[in-house]
C-alpha cells in the first residue's frame, strides 16, 4: 500500500511534532530554576537500574545451558562487561567492549 504525497507529508509532520513535543516538554514542565518533584528524582535514580536489569534478562532469555555453546560466550562477554566497567567506570566502553567481544566469540570461536 502506498501513500499519496499529502499523506506522506502529514505523516512526517505528525511524527516531527510528536518527537519535538517529547524532547521539549520536560524542559517546559521542569525548568532548571525549579526543583523537580520527588517522584521525578526517584524515577531518575531507579529507572536506569531497572532498564539495565531488563536488558540483562532479555539478552539471556534464549540462552540454553544444555545445548549449543552452553552459554559460554554470553558468560565471557558478561564478565568482560563487568571487568571493563569496574576498571574504567565508562558505560559506553563497557557496552561496546562486551558487544565486540561477544560478536568475535560467536563468529570466530564458538562456530
Automatic annotation (TrEMBL):
It comes from the Bacteria. The chain crosses the membrane at residues 6-30, 42-60, 66-84, 91-110. InterPro entries: Brnchd-chn_aa_trnsp_AzlD. Keywords: Membrane, Transmembrane, Transmembrane helix. Pfam families: AzlD (PF05437). Signal peptide: none annotated. This is Branched-chain amino acid permease. It comes from Bifidobacterium margollesii.
